[in-house]
UniProtKB/TrEMBL annotation:
GO biological process, one term: lipoprotein transport
Record domain ABC3 transporter permease C-terminal: where: 293-426
Family: Belongs to the ABC-4 integral membrane protein family. LolC/E subfamily.
UniProt source species: Methyloceanibacter caenitepidi
Protein known as: Lipoprotein releasing system transmembrane protein LolC
UniProt key word Chloroplast: no
Cited PANTHER family: LIPOPROTEIN-RELEASING SYSTEM TRANSMEMBRANE PROTEIN LOLE
Keyword terms: Cell membrane, Lipoprotein, Membrane, Transmembrane, Transmembrane helix, Transport
Pfam families: FtsX, MacB_PCD
Lineage: Bacteria, Pseudomonadati, Pseudomonadota, Alphaproteobacteria, Hyphomicrobiales
Taxonomic superkingdom: Bacteria
Length: 433
């Protein structure tokens, strides 16, 4: 009997010993193959690049998704913390606002119904000028807006109704170069009616409070005035512009809007935060989905590196595979050995990426400050990104989906090279040995 026949006979023998799947020896051989010797260093380098690629891909995906979630949530909280969740308009002049606001405030799950006078003005001082949106509110209503009352840095809102004055954002204060106690001239075209038309109205108000909610657009453009003073200034002595309704949960606006409409009476109509900000939040959602798809390609490319690395490993280990087969290893055992080798790269890379992503997300703002200091540039300027700090909010479900996706891609990338290894013919592999 020839050597070839002996080998072939041994491989095909029904008496060949079998082992249970993923036996210790399969793990031992697989992990040994990952620790390449000096002459196999190139294979080890490819495995290292695959590991680094998956780690960076997973970490980048987690970090970017967390930052975009935090960005969206911060904008959501600040925009809805300053503006009502539901805005109630009147068909005519809104003169019965006290009665309507009381009825709406009694609707279950409604926190506040705030009468409000709004108007565009030009705010100026000898050192600067800027456009501004005046919002006239009662003191108790202004204090109920925690985004404002908890972020007053200078001055106070106490006695806001009694002493005519204004509360302005920190960026507006910087633009006008004013501090608490200084006066600001406010000009509006909605003044007194004369035989020659409506005359502009200008009046000076002292600054009684300076706030900073952390959203640059609002800090630079909004000022608050007592409701009764705003009614006089905008020539609306007996009416308001709108009622802003604050809900206990903004997500329940669809269920509560009809109840608010019913409680308010037939002369009103309502809009909610979804309608007013639909374009903005839709754009954020589209951007978030596109970024997820783009960054997923990084993980996919890293997974493809596993295929090339394992293919080279199979080619290099052809003699070893043949010897294992002649010693009784089944095709399933060989396939599992290389599947373990490839999956190990993917699993360790994914877990390392998860740890790196979490670490960066927890320290994201410190990292931003460090990079800004190192490069002497301002990263994520508030004027462009609206927020004064870089938020990161990890979603457990989203993070789990990233990890599962990376693990799945890694395992799938290992299947084909492992299958090819199991189909290797030991006779051909040992023919010239």
């Amino acid at each position: 009997m020839s050597a070839s026949e002996t080998v072939a006979g041994h491989v095909e023998s029904p008496a060949a010993p079998t082992t249970r799947p993923f036996a210790p020896f399969e793990w031992l051989v697989a992990l040994r193959y990952l620790r390449a010797r000096r002459k196999e260093g190139f294979i080890s380098v490819i495995a290292g690049f695959s590991f680094i690629g998956i780690m960076l891909g997973v970490a980048t995906l987690i970090i970017v998704m967390a930052v975009m979630n935090g960005f969206r949530q911060e904008l959501f909280d600040k925009m809805l913390g300053l503006n009502g969740h539901v805005v109630v308009h009147s068909v005519g002049q809104f003169k019965d606002y006290d009665a309507v606001s009381e009825r709406i405030a009694n609707v279950p799950d409604v926190k506040h119904a705030l009468p409000l006078v709004e108007g565009q003005v030009l705010a100026s001082t000898p050192l600067g000028s800027t456009g501004a949106l005046v919002r006239g509110l009662r003191e108790k209503d202004l204090k109920s807006l925690k985004a404002i009352s908890k972020n007053v840095h200078f001055g106070t809102l106490d006695g806001f109704d009694k002493n005519p004055g204004i509360a302005i954002g920190s960026r507006m204060a910087n633009t006008l170069n004013v501090k608490v106690g200084d006066s600001v001239s406010i000009l509006t075209p909605r003044g007194a009616s004369t035989p020659l038309g409506t005359a502009p109205r200008i009046k000076r108000y002292p600054v009684v409070a300076i706030f900073e909610i952390g959203m640059s657009e609002y800090d630079a453009s909004i000022m608050f005035m007592p409701l009764n003073e705003a009614q006089i200034y905008f020539n609306q002595p007996d009416s308001v512009t709108v009622l802003e309704v604050v809900l206990k949960s903004p997500d329940e606006v669809a269920e509560l809007a009809p109840k608010i409409l019913e409680a308010g009476g037939p002369s009103i109509y309502v809009t909610d935060w979804r309608q007013r900000n639909a374009t903005f939040f839709s754009a954020l959602q589209v951007e978030r989905n596109v970024m997820f798809l783009i960054l997923t390609l990084i993980v996919l490319v890293a997974a493809l590196n596993i295929i090339s690395g394992l293919k080279m490993l199979v080619k290099d280990k052809a003699r070893d595979i043949a010897i294992l087969r002649t010693m009784g290893a089944t095709r399933g055992s060989v396939m599992r050995i290389f599947l373990i080798a490839g999956a190990t790269i993917g699993v360790t890379g994914t877990l390392a990426g998860l740890a790196l992503g979490v670490l960066v997300c927890v320290n994201i703002d410190h990292i931003r400050w460090f990079v800004s200091w190192l490069t002497d540039t301002e990263l994520f300027p508030a004027e462009l990104y609206y927020l004064s700090e870089l938020p990161a909010e990890m979603d457990s479900g989203e993070t789990a989906s990233v990890v599962i996706m990376a693990l799945t891609l890694s395992v799938l990338a290992s299947v084909y090279p492992a299958w090819r290894a199991s189909r290797l013919d030991p006779v051909e592999a040992l023919r010239y040995e």
